[in-house]
Amino acid sequence: MDLIEKMEPVIIFSAVIIGLLFSNIQIVADNATYLINIFLCLMLCGLFLEVPLNELKDSFKNVKFTSTSLIINFLWTPLFGYFVGSLFLRGNVDVLIGFFMLILTPCTDWYLVFTKMAKGDLTLSLSILPINLILQIILLPIYLVLFFSTANSMDYSQLAFSLVIVIVIPFVAAQITKLVLNNGLKQKAAELMGSLQIWLLSLAVFCIFASQGVLLFENLNSIAVLFVPLILFFIVNTAIDLLVSEKINFTYSEYASLTMTTLARNSPLALAIAINSFPGHELISIALVIGPLIELPVLYVVSRFCLKIRDSDLFFN
């Protein structure tokens, strides 16, 4: 893990603080909104460049691992997430939607970092990446309609437009780039965009908080309550991952990979969809940005917990 990967939580947190400081400068606050989509679309284009969709078939080679992770990520997590979110966030629909979007989108990047830290199976974790990406793009709008169509926050045409802007366009641009460039240039382009992703995300985060700093300070109590359901989600899913892995006779490396695949969330993708799908509901976007500030330290702690499990000799004998 290189220095930039280690510093990701600090970089994102710094972008939040600097954005809040600049929110008092009117010319910055007025213009930051227009830059958010540009930075997010560039970042997602880089993500699609890196994702080996031609290796999608590899996701199904380990049927037991793939089916277990998909059930936890796309069946259990939406149901549990909506339940626990409604329990603690019922008074604020926007924060509830932000929380739900955050936990419904499995991570497609930094979960590999924490898998490596926990001594999980990196090849196995990487194989599940394409199918996680495709399913979250397909299922996120469906779950939003199912759970929030009666919350007076859903605009179906806006949701469809959002998917075109932040998913279809970056995806098509990435595939065209792959077709046009030869293998050497394609690899260099993917590496360059991969190295820029954290900075593009941080610029988008800066713009969000620069444009919405006043709104955040007016709703600090609403954002603070996000901490409880998010921590509860991590605790419950960590326990489920351990119990399920032991029950179905996973190896330790499979267990560590499952844990990181089902805990790490892909907030940049959800953030891009939220900004375009819910205009006028900025608290949804702010909740999605606050999420990783809690998530990244938790994932580090969980990676250490996994290693303790490995060394305890109580499981995976």
How are the SSEs ordered, and which strands pair?
Layout lengths: L2 H4 L1 H15 L3 H25 L12 H27 L3 H12 L6 H7 L4 H6 L1 H20 L7 H25 L2 H36 L1 H5 L2 H21 L4 H12 L3 H11 L4 H31 L5
What does this structure look like?
- With 317 residues, the chain is mainly alpha-helical.
- The chain has 15 helices and no strands.
- The protein has helices at 3-6, 8-22, 26-50, 63-89, 93-104, 111-117, 122-127, 129-148, 156-180, 183-218, 220-224, 227-247, 252-263, 267-277, 282-312.
- Helix 4 runs antiparallel to helix 12 (227-247) and helix 9 crosses helix 14 (267-277).
- The longest helix has 36 residues, at 183-218.
- The chain starts with a helix and ends in a 5-residue tail after the last helix.
- The mean pLDDT is 82.
Based on the model shown, name its key terms:
317 residues; mainly alpha; 15 helices; 81% helix
Entry summary:
The chain is mainly α and 317 residues long. 81% of the residues lie in helices and 0% in strands.
Q: Characterize the largest beta sheet: strand count, sense, and whether it forms a barrel.
A: none
- Compute the separation of the termini in Å: 29 Å
Q: What is the ordering of alpha helices and beta strands?
A: HHHHHHHHHHHHHHH
Note the overall shape.
Answer: globular
Please compute the radius of gyration using only Cα atoms.
19 Å
How many DSSP helices? 15
Secondary structural class = mainly alpha
Round the mean pLDDT to the nearest integer and report it: 82
